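debug: dumping io for the single-chain case to check the tokenizer round-trip. Nothing else runs in this session.
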Amino acid sequence: MSKVIDIINSRQAPFASFELVPPLKGSDVSKLYQSIEPLMELAPPFLNVTCHRDEIEYHPNGDGTYTKLTLAKRPGTIAIVAAIMRRFPVEIVPHVICGGASQTTIESELLDLHFLGIENVVALRGDAIPGQRYFIPEPYGFVHSEELVGMIRNLNQGIYLDPTVKNGLSTNFCVGVAAYPEKHFEAANLDTDIQYLKKKVDAGADYIITQMFFNNDSFYQFEAQCRQAGITVPIIPGLKPISSQRQIDLLPRTFHIDIPQDLVKEMKKATASDAAYQAGIEWCVAQSRDLLQHGVPAIHYYTMGKAENIRAVVNATF
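debug: decoded output
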């Protein structure tokens, strides 16, 4: 097993890593494998696996009242991680989120991952569920992701939530955290957001992976401000090739990011779907090459369950 921070520090050349979205509940595991196989041809040193909290739905009863149902839309992280490990010889980096779980539940999940031999996690707060304007933690849950980072660091020292546990098993997690080059939408400004990020690093984060962006100048400004704030850990930029004109409207709404006007024009000029698809690849290739020229240690690609455009970008870049 290799830790992500060791991979970053030991590599003589930059590399590509990828983020996977678990299939919807009811899907065959073979579909998950089929989405990974094209990526394995690119020899990634690790794959990230996202985590999705349960969703709340209200079903009408017919008498004017509603029944609240908690629904899991995707298989659990442990099952997905175990399935990938069984099939592919690659480091798996599961996301662990604060949302929808108590501290004790999260601790148990971390110990399960440790028993599987996992040494890498990404610690995230997670988003508010549909219908909530702001993130609301579960009872006895974490409010901020730096609290989750602190728990992981405690487990690495054999310190558990239950103080009666003495000489407990020490985990061996390397911890990644998320950052937002254009700031998190809840933050007042970028400087404030970077101070929140520094809290995560001070709590024990080993490296940072950014949210997707489409203007490299935003990343360079963000990186410079991070260094000025005293953040010294590696920062890996995250990219995604736009694959359709529809995503021009969808991605900003979903991820609170900006789409440069030049990219919008290129996508709007593409009158056919395959032309728009190619325009997205070309923009991402140009971004990737520019980032590598500026000395980034790696580039993290968000696959969104699609591999072909990612493979085209990586083959043209690395």
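debug: round-trip ok. Residues 273-293 form the longest helix (21 residues).
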